[in-house]
Design brief:
Layout: E1 4-5, H1 7-18, H2 44-54, E2 59-70, E3 73-83, E4 89-90, E5 103-105, H3 110-119, E6 122-125, E7 131-132
Parallel strand pairs: 1-7
Antiparallel strand pairs: 2-3, 2-5, 3-4, 3-6
Length: 134
Protein backbone atom coordinates (compact mmCIF):
# COMPACT_ATOMS: atom_id res chain seq x y z
CA UNK A 1 0.00 0.00 0.00
CA UNK A 2 1.35 3.40 -0.98
CA UNK A 3 0.89 6.25 1.46
CA UNK A 4 1.21 9.92 0.61
CA UNK A 5 3.67 11.66 2.90
CA UNK A 6 3.26 15.42 3.03
CA UNK A 7 6.07 17.87 3.71
CA UNK A 8 5.16 18.32 7.40
CA UNK A 9 5.27 14.57 8.05
CA UNK A 10 8.55 14.36 6.13
CA UNK A 11 10.03 17.19 8.22
CA UNK A 12 8.83 15.49 11.43
CA UNK A 13 10.43 12.12 10.63
CA UNK A 14 13.59 13.72 9.21
CA UNK A 15 14.04 15.57 12.53
CA UNK A 16 13.23 12.43 14.51
CA UNK A 17 15.88 10.42 12.68
CA UNK A 18 18.39 13.25 13.16
CA UNK A 19 17.82 12.84 16.93
CA UNK A 20 18.36 9.08 16.94
CA UNK A 21 21.72 9.65 18.64
CA UNK A 22 19.73 10.90 21.65
CA UNK A 23 17.73 7.67 21.85
CA UNK A 24 17.59 6.12 25.30
CA UNK A 25 17.33 2.51 26.33
CA UNK A 26 14.39 2.89 28.73
CA UNK A 27 14.44 0.34 31.56
CA UNK A 28 11.46 -1.95 31.85
CA UNK A 29 9.61 -2.00 35.13
CA UNK A 30 6.86 -4.35 36.20
CA UNK A 31 3.99 -2.37 37.69
CA UNK A 32 0.36 -2.97 38.54
CA UNK A 33 -2.56 -0.58 38.43
CA UNK A 34 -4.56 0.51 41.48
CA UNK A 35 -7.00 -2.39 40.99
CA UNK A 36 -4.13 -4.92 40.90
CA UNK A 37 -4.27 -5.58 37.15
CA UNK A 38 -1.17 -5.49 34.99
CA UNK A 39 -0.52 -3.38 31.88
CA UNK A 40 -1.74 -5.04 28.70
CA UNK A 41 0.72 -6.16 26.03
CA UNK A 42 0.76 -4.03 22.85
CA UNK A 43 -1.21 -1.23 24.57
CA UNK A 44 1.56 1.14 25.62
CA UNK A 45 -0.38 4.38 25.07
CA UNK A 46 -3.42 3.21 27.05
CA UNK A 47 -1.20 1.67 29.75
CA UNK A 48 0.78 4.88 30.21
CA UNK A 49 -2.36 7.05 30.17
CA UNK A 50 -3.92 4.90 32.90
CA UNK A 51 -0.73 4.79 34.97
CA UNK A 52 -0.23 8.56 34.96
CA UNK A 53 -3.93 9.09 35.79
CA UNK A 54 -3.39 6.89 38.87
CA UNK A 55 0.04 8.39 39.65
CA UNK A 56 -0.39 12.14 39.07
CA UNK A 57 3.26 12.90 39.85
CA UNK A 58 4.23 10.90 36.74
CA UNK A 59 4.05 12.16 33.16
CA UNK A 60 3.45 10.38 29.87
CA UNK A 61 6.33 10.60 27.41
CA UNK A 62 5.38 9.97 23.78
CA UNK A 63 7.86 8.96 21.15
CA UNK A 64 9.18 6.25 18.90
CA UNK A 65 11.23 3.11 19.44
CA UNK A 66 13.84 2.24 16.87
CA UNK A 67 12.81 -1.35 16.33
CA UNK A 68 15.22 -2.29 13.58
CA UNK A 69 16.34 -1.55 10.06
CA UNK A 70 15.00 -2.29 6.60
CA UNK A 71 17.94 -1.80 4.25
CA UNK A 72 19.04 1.79 4.88
CA UNK A 73 15.72 2.72 6.51
CA UNK A 74 15.15 2.86 10.27
CA UNK A 75 12.01 1.14 11.55
CA UNK A 76 10.13 3.38 13.98
CA UNK A 77 7.19 2.34 16.16
CA UNK A 78 5.03 4.79 18.09
CA UNK A 79 5.49 4.15 21.81
CA UNK A 80 4.79 5.71 25.21
CA UNK A 81 6.77 5.49 28.44
CA UNK A 82 6.43 7.01 31.91
CA UNK A 83 8.52 9.83 33.36
CA UNK A 84 8.82 9.49 37.14
CA UNK A 85 8.84 12.53 39.44
CA UNK A 86 12.67 12.42 39.49
CA UNK A 87 12.74 12.67 35.67
CA UNK A 88 13.82 9.08 35.04
CA UNK A 89 11.87 7.08 32.48
CA UNK A 90 10.40 3.59 32.76
CA UNK A 91 8.69 1.36 30.22
CA UNK A 92 5.67 -0.29 31.85
CA UNK A 93 4.41 -2.18 28.79
CA UNK A 94 7.38 -4.14 27.48
CA UNK A 95 8.51 -7.06 29.61
CA UNK A 96 12.10 -7.22 30.92
CA UNK A 97 12.81 -10.14 28.58
CA UNK A 98 11.58 -8.26 25.48
CA UNK A 99 14.24 -7.17 23.02
CA UNK A 100 15.69 -3.79 23.90
CA UNK A 101 14.89 -0.94 21.54
CA UNK A 102 16.14 2.66 21.82
CA UNK A 103 13.42 5.25 22.46
CA UNK A 104 13.43 8.72 20.87
CA UNK A 105 11.11 11.21 22.57
CA UNK A 106 8.54 13.09 20.53
CA UNK A 107 9.13 16.85 20.23
CA UNK A 108 5.87 18.77 20.53
CA UNK A 109 2.59 18.40 22.33
CA UNK A 110 0.46 15.27 22.68
CA UNK A 111 -2.06 16.47 20.09
CA UNK A 112 0.65 16.55 17.41
CA UNK A 113 1.83 13.07 18.39
CA UNK A 114 -1.74 11.73 18.27
CA UNK A 115 -2.34 13.36 14.88
CA UNK A 116 0.78 11.68 13.49
CA UNK A 117 0.07 8.36 15.22
CA UNK A 118 -3.47 8.34 13.80
CA UNK A 119 -1.87 8.32 10.33
CA UNK A 120 1.21 6.25 11.04
CA UNK A 121 1.89 3.89 13.95
CA UNK A 122 4.92 2.27 12.32
CA UNK A 123 7.21 3.85 9.76
CA UNK A 124 10.36 2.96 7.86
CA UNK A 125 12.38 6.15 7.39
CA UNK A 126 13.45 7.18 4.83
CA UNK A 127 10.22 5.77 3.44
CA UNK A 128 10.21 2.63 1.37
CA UNK A 129 7.48 2.51 -1.27
CA UNK A 130 5.72 5.76 -0.27
CA UNK A 131 5.15 8.90 -2.28
CA UNK A 132 6.37 12.17 -0.75
CA UNK A 133 4.35 15.19 -1.85
CA UNK A 134 5.32 18.84 -1.65
Amino acid sequence: MTMMIDSSLKAYFDALVERQGLAQDVPRETVSFADGTMPLPHACHANVDRFVAEQPACIAVRGWVISGRLGTAILLDAHSVVSRPDGSWIDITLKPEDQRAPFVAHKGDDSLFEAIRSRVNRMAWPPVGHVISA
